[in-house]
Amino acid sequence: MATEDVSHDLSSLLSSEERDFLIRNNGDQVPVSGLVGKNILLYFSAQWCPPCRAFLPKLIEAYHTIKAKGSAFEPLPFGDGMKQILDKKFKIEGIPTAVAIGPSGRTITKEARMHLTAYGADAFPFTEEHLKQLEEEIEKKAKGWPEKVKHELHSEHELIRTKRSSYNCDCCGESGYSWSFYCKECDFDLHPKCALKEDEDTGTEKGKEGFICDGDVCRKA
């Protein structure tokens, strides 16, 4: 399910007795009162986290695309200790994680990162009804893809068009959802975009001590 049945008073969630503003990474102050009534995206990440660095360009691209269409969400700054409080509040177990909060203060989804990866800026505003519509469009598009393909990265077997909940693409290294061109025998996945055209390989990196980075998420060890 895309929708989380949780509501928050943003003022109490994001402010304290000491102050009613947040601090951006560049030191600018952001009044909490200015965030009330807006779509908010809480993005939990770290500079040392390879999956976070890989996802950040997608997040920035989606933000600018959404803004250009006349809509927007407010990227919440985490330049202070508020991050630790929100980690506990939303029970964040791994990074990167993106939590979408609607104008009413209701948590729409804790899986905004997954939806942005799967659909890009089209995932906004992350509501269950909207995501269902996107999924129907993907299903319709998938009917036009071949059932089997041969690919130079996996010449041993044909890759079968397969419905998959989640996976890491063995071509570009990024996470994938919904559909894959898959070899079950070898547990080999390709994004449809990678299977149907050439793409560049990406390397892997190590995370920070105390964390285990497995595929597209880093969790506390």
Automatic annotation (TrEMBL):
Pfam families found in the cross-reference section: C1_2 (PF03107), Thioredoxin_8 (PF13905)
Molecular functions (GO terms): protein-disulfide reductase [NAD(P)H] activity
Family annotation (Gene3D superfamilies): 3.30.60.20, Glutaredoxin (3.40.30.10)
EC number annotated for this UniProt entry: 1.8.1.8
Broad EC category: oxidoreductase
Coiled coil region boundaries: none
Sequence ranges assigned to domain Thioredoxin in this UniProt record: 12-136
Sequence similarity: Belongs to the nucleoredoxin family.
PANTHER family registered for this protein in UniProt: THIOREDOXIN, THIOREDOXIN DOMAIN-CONTAINING PROTEIN
Protein name (record): protein-disulfide reductase
Source organism of this protein record: Salix viminalis (Common osier)
